Write the structure tokens for this entry.
Amino acid sequence: MAPALTEVVPQAPHTLKPANKAIFPDGIKTSGQHPPMYDQLRPYEKFPSQITGPTVWEAKDYRDNLERWVHRFSDEEIQELSQTADAFIAAGTPLTGISKANFPLPTLSGFLGSIRSELLNGKGFILFKGFPVEAWGNHKSAVAYMGLGTYLGYFVSQNGRGHSLGHVKDLGEDSTQIDKVRIYRTNARQFFHADDSDIVGLLCMARALSGGESDIASSHNVYNILQRTRPDVLNLLTQPIWYFDRKGETSAGEEPYIRTSVFYLEPRGQGRVYSKWDPYYVRSLGRFSSTGEIPPLSAEQEEAMQVLEKTCLDEALHMILEVGDIQFLSNEHVFHARTAYKDHAPPLPRRHLMRLWLATPESEGGWALPFVDSEEKKRGGIQVNDTAPVAPLDAE
């Protein structure tokens, strides 16, 4: 049966316990998906009438001001990344064991610390340019990319197979089978959403023939617009009445879906508004609603989804990722989407993005979240039982 609206979820059994290094080389296990702690959720009346600060932005603020959000790697920065990647490869450490300790970046580290702060507490996005993927190839590019990522957060598993390095690539899967298929493995449009991590990174290895372009929107700007124009929709989005499909990526004893909200208030700290959303995961639950196990989407929810998507699209900053670009985004306060795309005909390479999901625990400056794993280093992500992390160098 679906969980009751007053249910308080017990603490995760592995919270803050060290993981078996024979399975998890860095000694930290991805926490995985959890329902919210329902007693920490707040009613709409407690939410702010308006959000202010650097997390609230409009596309016009950045569209013609690339210097505010684009950084081209210098020769010195590339040299440091290259030398450290070469040393890491020579040491023979598994890619899933990479960390700041074994990937030192004495010059870049200070800059990356400021980028981390900007992602968490500022505008929430940056675009790096000039990562030499064609010269380095998949292996060295993956090492340097994951090494850079360790300065922003802890990588977490992105699917039930333990992929800590993900690959956004069309594998020919049927995008209409949304109860079984993850959309990143298709060429279909991805609607505005936020991933199950604090930060998401995308490294462009190869572009599509057409499409596959990126759109991002400040969820705090979207919130303010809804508060002004459609408070009824915003009210609905703050209620824990939204069921999210887990698409079979569950550990023993876990339910196949999670009941949650779209907008939350931080239960501690600054009381900021956090967003968690993916319409594909909300629309794929017919196998449960058809039996009465969970309620179907109401007409009001259907409308709210349409209003949210349109508002994001109206407010979006559009960008095209070129080969060697890296986009890092906050999942706390930025929604992102991509257009549908068409690949080149063989033998030209298919569109390929290497993806990182990164966690920023509360104890290290991350947002306070109403989930049992808020203080875990690798909070969020997708973890199925004790599936070991892997870092494949291409889609599989």
Summary: The first strand starts at residue 70 and ends at 72.
